[in-house]
Amino acid sequence: MIFQINKIISVTIILTLLLSACHNHTEGDGHNHGTAEIKTEAKKEEHHEEAPATIASLTAEQIKTVGITFGNIENKELTATIKANGNLKVPNNNKANATSLYGGVIKTLNVQIGSFVKKGQRIATIANPQFIQLQEEYLSTGSKITFAEQEVARQKELNEGNAGAKKNLQSATADLNSLRTRRASLQQQIQLMGINPNNVSNGNLQSMLVVSSPISGTVSNVFAKIGSYVDVSSPVAEIVDNGSLHLDLNVFEKDLPMLKVGQTIHFTLTNNPTTEYDAVVYSIGTAFESDSKTIPVHCNVKGNKTGLIDGMNITAIVSLNNVTSPAVPTEAIVEADGKYYIFIKTNKEPEEHHEEGEEGHDHKEAEKGKEAEPKNTSNFEKIEIIKGVSNMGYTAITFVNDIPKDAVIVTKGAFFINAKLSNTGEHEH
């Protein structure tokens, strides 16, 4: 009995050991195979990893269609500047209204808004029966003066012969002087009407009054129209001499100590930020504007004034020093993965990428495709930069790596090239 129990225990122990051995062998086998597979996959992934594409190729047709433009690195005064808003103004002594000294009906208008006129040029004509009456009175007064002169001469002869009373001579002389004064007054009025008194005759009475421009300049407004009545207080048109444009800036208190008379101001129009103009500070205000709490700074516009009109709103950049920096148009810069880039023309060829295991037929096909590519293409290299301050449509840049001094950069269309480069990289992987 004891022998049988021991035999059973021995068999049980042997079975247990066998089962344990089988189990350990299976687990170990699985573990080892899994590790091998992971390592193999990692090697494959590592093998397929490639550097990001940095060179894109575009045909001449693509460049034309997208509207890609080119330029060079420029030096711009973009550092140490302050911004200010303001508007253009013409001094009152460079503005004038064309008015009539007499009321009347507008018969002709010879100008329109935007017309350039010279001093004395006809603006309009006005009709009024009073004009004829003044000329008639002028002619009549001349005739009366002739008669009065004859009467004075006759009274002098009588007085010398003691045949006439002295008071009659005095009365005739007074009448003559009064008529001469009246004729002088009428003569001045006729001249102010634009009529030469020497040309006034019974057969040449003018019914039209000429309204002339008092200064040379541009017609900024026309207040009258044909057939309307204007009086002395109603201007016919406004003329502005834009050759003496001033720039009035609104500068905050914190920026005022950095400004001085003679300082150069660069400004652009609010509705045209691409064209830059210059002005020079000639006066700095001493009191705050009530609404904006800013101090007015007055400047003379210098150089080109084409397109500048009284009342236009502007944005100004005040250069505080002469420090310049390399700069490119702001739209030439693209952002990718938290970094900034520009594109330059290059002779480098785009990188070639091949899929794993495709070194045979596919490689030959790629070579054939390469031969079939059009030769009229341009290559562009993606260059990393560091952005600086941006003003007036330009941004200061610093290159991470050196580039050729005569590098041609893409000033417009960089976004398209970057998108094409990104799409190409995705397809290659």
What does this structure look like?
This protein has 6 helices and 23 strands. The protein has 3 domains: 55-76 and 325-428, conserved putative lor/sdh protein from methanococcus maripaludis s2 fold (Beta Barrel); 81-92 and 243-319, Elongation Factor Tu (Ef-tu), domain 3 (Beta Barrel); 97-240, OB fold (Dihydrolipoamide Acetyltransferase, E2P) (Beta Barrel), CATH 2.40.50. The chain is an alpha+beta fold. The protein is 33% helix and 32% strand.
N→C terminal distance: 77 Å
Percent of residues in β-strands: 25-35%
* Low-pLDDT sequence parts: 1-7, 21-28, 30-40, 42-49, 354-361
CATH topology of the largest domain: OB fold (Dihydrolipoamide Acetyltransferase, E2P)
What is the overall number of helices?
A: 6
Q: In angstroms, what is the radius of gyration?
A: 47 Å
Question: What does the oligomeric state look like here?
Answer: single chain
- What is the CATH class of the largest domain? Mainly Beta
List key phrases describing it.
7-stranded antiparallel β-sheet; Elongation Factor Tu (Ef-tu), domain 3; OB fold (Dihydrolipoamide Acetyltransferase, E2P); 32% strand; elongated; disordered N terminus; 6 helices; 3 domains; single chain; conserved putative lor/sdh protein from methanococcus maripaludis s2 fold; 23 strands; 6-stranded antiparallel barrel; 429 residues; alpha+beta
